[in-house]
């Protein structure tokens, strides 16, 4: 029995090594995206002076619909965000206003984190947005990674170029470098705490770092609970829901 | 001698009228020029001080490094305590916290949807404290075009141009959209209670004034401020005093390992202001020098002309036994009297003119309209300033130039040969 398992594992690893770069990216997209997901997370923003923790609950369907409600701290509690396609609205209970975030506002930071609204908006599968090239393989601390370079297929993406270190077992980008068109490094993103959730590998922590911010210590996004492929009613994604 | 010279001046108008007119005009011009320069520069210093730099300004070292970006995440904290200490340590100044922030101003329609939206540059200053001098500093009484002063923390005064652009009316609730001190997205509702016109061209197009407590609520900046501005109680910028307290303050906050240490700058440290301040100091010498030279040349020339016309008179006086020195001295005395009269007339013309422009101003707003950006904060209405030195500054070009001009022209007396005199007189 042990021999069979060993053979299966070896063949599985060898099989993965034989994957084309397109297959790697597709498998990675499948891991990160789902038909739907509901999650509770906290964002730990390490500012230049202090660290803030912002808790939120998210409902996501595919890549087009997303609804976020901030739960704490008190100043942020009740703030909601709705993404429908390429539109993003935010609601603040202090002003009782629903405001569409567009244009240069999309470049602003989400809750003071190292993530921008653009980062939130651009979550279509990577395979749809980038052409990919396998740069090579590397072993770091006993784990094997593919290094994949991605170049934007169309203009207007926040990061025209990305380089990802994709774990050969988890098929997840354990580290990503996000570049401007000029080749300047804009952000880095890493993930850890990989767990098997409903049959897929998924990280429990992401770390984003805006490399343009001097002395930035990055932002941690910690997934506390996540449930994939849960039925979410359409009413969740109505604009009217923001005020409720 | 004095009586003789005076009689000569009064009876022979051709020898006094033109020089007095020239001296009067030059003195009036010198006075107005000096008043204009001092007034314009003072106005610029004052506007810069109020809007940007104070006479001195305190911020964190980290904020100072990136101040162009208005990095409120690096703002001063525990501001009330700092201000209290400053009042005790530097009693010659009054201290006022200020928050500078930028973002978008959004006017909703009846449904709460965006009706109009535009960029805004806002200042949160202490309007509501009992001992606040902000209305006086911002000269809001004369600058408010419609509406009223700020009375509540969520009241906002909006520049007339911004109000026009966004279609704002008094009583409208507008939403500020920006980022908090923690760089988080924020929205905050302000009520438009008035419009103002600072007369500062490009700056007016995006400006909004709110109370500092309103700004603190909007930006989550409790007991924090971008800067603390210090002003001399008489509101006149004193460069030496500012430099002195700047150096004192920075010496006592010199822990270079702490990027959030408080750091003080003087008005002269703001954009190119040091050069301007030095320029004002030397301007009086430049202006006086130029006018003195011009006046001297004009009066020298006049003296020569006059000497030619009075060739016979000089000859007779020398022939009658007056020494050349006596004649020369009498001419100088004459020039002193003409210079004094010219200076008095010139001062009487120049001072009221300067005072008039001090009160009314000269409006250059049309010329400033096309400026899109400006690092210098400058009012588009220029005012002169009547300062005590204007009462006596005319003496230098008025009397000195007349005397120097006469001294140069009068040298011809010494060239007259006694042996030639009688021959000349006979012809």
Summarize the SSE layout with pairings.
The complex is a heterodimer of chains A (244) and B (427).
Chain A: H1 2-17, H2 21-32, E1 36-46, E2 51-61, E3 65-72, E4 80-84, E5 87-92, E6 97-100, H3 117-121, H4 126-129, E7 130-140, E8 143-152, E9 161-167, E10 173-179, E11 185-197, E12 200-210, E13 219-228
Chain B: H1 2-11, H2 13-53, E1 56-60, H3 61-65, H4 79-89, E2 93-108, E3 114-125, H5 134-138, H6 140-143, E4 144-147, E5 155-159, H7 160-166, E6 173-179, E7 185-196, E8 207-211, H8 212-219, E9 227-232, H9 239-251, E10 262-266, H10 273-309, H11 311-319, H12 324-360, E11 362-363, H13 365-368, E12 381-382, H14 395-409, H15 418-426
Describe what you observe in this structure.
The complex is a heterodimer of chains A (244) and B (427). In chain A, 15% of the residues lie in helices and 47% in strands. With 244 residues, chain A is of the alpha+beta class. Chain A has a single domain (19-243), classed as Lipoprotein localisation LolA/LolB/LppX (outer membrane lipoprotein receptor (LolB), chain A, Clam). Chain A has a 13-stranded antiparallel sheet. The model of chain A is unreliable at 1-15 (pLDDT under 50). Chain B has helices spanning 2-11, 13-53, 61-65, 79-89, 134-138, 140-143, 160-166, 212-219, 239-251, 273-309, 311-319, 324-360, 365-368, 395-409, 418-426; strands at 56-60, 93-108, 114-125, 144-147, 155-159, 173-179, 185-196, 207-211, 227-232, 262-266, 362-363, 381-382. A six-stranded mixed barrel of chain B has the order 2-3-8-5-7-6. In chain B, strands 11-12 form a two-stranded antiparallel ribbon. In chain B, strand 2 and strand 3 (114-125) form a beta hairpin. Chain B is elongated, with a radius of gyration of 31 Å. Classes of the chains: A alpha+beta (244), B alpha+beta (427).
Structural descriptors:
heterodimer; A: 244 residues; alpha+beta; outer membrane lipoprotein receptor (LolB), chain A; 13-stranded antiparallel beta sheet; 4 helices; 13 strands; globular; disordered N terminus; B: 427 residues; 6-stranded mixed barrel; two-stranded antiparallel ribbon; 12 strands; elongated
